[in-house]
């Protein structure tokens, strides 16, 4: 399973998304875009957005944390 999440430390929805993945034992890779300009550029290329979190689940790009959308993407 390939999940990448682009976050910032001050983002409350980023914290909710991380908590959801950890509680459900879903492995993910996190990139803090406030500290890594290369990953910030990658996030914008993937999503067309500057807002976080951006979650890439098997190539499906989700902007923000919407639990039903995340669960649908995980089932694919």
Assess the beta-strand content as a share of residues.
Answer: 15-25%
The general outline is globular
Order of helices and strands: EHEHEEH
Determine Rg (CA atoms, Å).
11 Å
Side by side, the strands of the main sheet go 2-1-3-4
Ranges where pLDDT stays below 50 over 5 or more residues in a row are none
CATH H-level superfamily: Glutaredoxin
Structural class: alpha+beta
- The tally of structural domains comes to 1
Distance between the termini: 10 Å
Main beta sheet strand tally, sense and closure: 4 strands, mixed
Strand tally: 4
GO biological process, one term: cell redox homeostasis
GO molecular function: electron transfer activity
Domain Glutaredoxin: 3-60
InterPro entries: GlrX_YruB (IPR011911), Glutaredoxin (IPR002109), Grx-like_ET (IPR051548), Thioredoxin-like_sf (IPR036249)
What is the fold's blueprint, element by element?
Layout: E1 3-7, H1 12-23, E2 29-32, H2 37-47, E3 54-57, E4 60-63, H3 67-75
Parallel strand pairs: 1-2
Antiparallel strand pairs: 1-3, 3-4
Could you give a short description of this structure?
Residues 3-60 form the Glutaredoxin domain. By secondary structure, the chain is α+β, with helices and mostly antiparallel strands.
């Amino acid at each position: 399973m390939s999940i990448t999440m682009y976050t910032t430390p001050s983002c409350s929805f980023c914290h909710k998304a991380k908590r959801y993945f950890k509680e459900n034992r879903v492995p993910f890779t996190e990139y803090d875009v406030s500290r890594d300009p290369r990953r910030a550029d990658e996030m914008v290329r993937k999503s067309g957005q500057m807002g976080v979190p951006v979650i890439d689940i098997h190539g499906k790009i989700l902007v923000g944390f919407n639990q039903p959308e995340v669960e649908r993407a995980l089932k694919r």
